[in-house]
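Incident log, support desk, overnight shift.

02:14 A customer reports that sequence design results differ from what the structure should imply. Their input is reproduced verbatim below. On-call engineer (initials T.W.) acknowledged and began investigating.
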């Protein structure tokens, strides 16, 4: 006789947590800036979001009939939220939490953005390269640039134009002014020497001083201080055209355009980040009366972010003041904190930022680029300190 198991009653369906979560939002959430977290059955973070109006944003999830909100609600068992003083701070906090916890539904922040840098290595004969991974190795990095396929090619053209090597780091280097009487004659290790695009420090065909001249020119160009490489490419086009070598001229025209674009990107980017140097004062508390309202103006407290080079260096709260009035006077401690942050930023060595700092910089830059009206809230440090 087969041993039949006792029939068991089917498990009762798990109650849908969505109505309970909705009631929780209705009962407790306010329309203030903040971030919220959906949490799964094992306590795992499913999704982190931000909103300038947390209550409205959360209630919109329960009206969704398709898409990610519905997918999240199908799995979520808990919901939490917290308020922050401003939407800008909600953006930063959301970003930092997503970076730290990498929730399953936050795909947009999980995908690492594609940026690249130009690297001038710190070696006896420095090299010029494009890289996606800046590291703290003492090299000088310029950028970031969108990591296009054209970038490595343009960097190579620049290296060839300025006579800077781009061979592997392990290639032995010997300058012509290096005392090495017993050394056998050396031959260049690649065809660039023969093509005239590298002075061949691998074969003692150039002095250290002469080689470093090309490196310095590359650095000055990448700092936006000179456009000599563009002029040099232009001279090559002219020479090739007058020799009726039209294919060569066309080749150099393409290279010159690539190098010009590179410079424009660098200069634009640097100029934009340099312009992000101010105290960003954001009013906090309930919504302001409309501009045309007859209500008496209301004194507002402000959340202040000291932004230098596109990065938030200091955050503090400011006592209430009437709209249009100067900020309230600062105490000595706050004054010295601001001065100290400015001083540190002024003297900081431009190390390559780690990935998180880079992403945050792009986030801040994008915030102001997309909301130029927010720049009007910025107060130059000198004016703020009075
Ligand atoms: S010629 Fe020598 S130093 Fe120049 S790129 Fe080639 S291997 Fe490097």
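02:41 Re-run completed on a clean worker. Output:
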């Amino acid at each position: 006789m087969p041993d039949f198991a006792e029939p068991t009653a089917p498990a009762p369906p798990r109650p849908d947590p969505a109505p309970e979560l909705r009631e929780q939002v209705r009962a407790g959430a306010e329309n203030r800036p903040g971030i919220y977290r959906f949490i799964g059955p094992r306590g795992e973070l499913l999704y982190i979001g931000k909103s300038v109006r947390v209550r409205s944003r959360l209630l919109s999830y329960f009206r969704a009939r398709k898409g990610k909100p519905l997918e999240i609600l199908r799995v979520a068992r808990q919901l939490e939220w917290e308020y922050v003083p401003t939407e800008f701070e909600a953006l930063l906090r959301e970003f930092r939490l997503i970076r730290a916890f990498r929730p399953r539904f936050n795909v947009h922040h999980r995908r690492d953005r594609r940026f690249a840098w130009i690297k001038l290595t710190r070696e006896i004969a420095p090299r010029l390269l494009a890289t996606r991974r800046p590291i703290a190795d003492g090299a000088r990095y310029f950028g970031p640039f969108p990591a296009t396929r054209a970038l490595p090619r343009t960097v190579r053209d620049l290296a060839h134009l300025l006579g800077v090597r781009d061979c592997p780091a392990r290639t032995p280097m010997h300058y012509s002014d290096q005392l090495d009487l017993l050394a056998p004659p050396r031959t260049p290790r690649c065809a660039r020497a023969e093509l005239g695009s590298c002075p061949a420090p691998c074969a003692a065909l150039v002095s250290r001083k002469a080689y470093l001249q090309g490196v310095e020119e590359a650095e000055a160009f990448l700092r936006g201080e000179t456009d000599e490489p563009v002029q040099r490419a232009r001279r090559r086009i002219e020479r090739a055209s007058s020799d009726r070598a039209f294919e060569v001229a066309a080749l150099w025209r393409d290279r010159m355009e690539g190098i010009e674009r590179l410079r424009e990107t660098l200069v634009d980017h640097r100029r934009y980040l340099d312009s992000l140097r101010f105290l960003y004062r954001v009013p906090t508390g309930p919504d302001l009366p409309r501009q045309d309202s007859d209500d008496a103006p209301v004194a507002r407290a402000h959340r202040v972010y000291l932004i230098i080079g596109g990065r938030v260096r200091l955050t503090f709260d400011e006592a209430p003041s009437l709209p249009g009035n100067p900020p309230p006077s600062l105490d000595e401690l706050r004054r010295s904190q601001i001065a100290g942050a400015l001083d540190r930023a002024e003297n900081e060595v431009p190390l390559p930022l780690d990935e998180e700092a880079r992403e945050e910089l792009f986030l801040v830059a994008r915030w102001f680029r997309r909301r130029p009206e927010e720049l009007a809230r910025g107060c130059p440090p000198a004016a703020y300190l009075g």
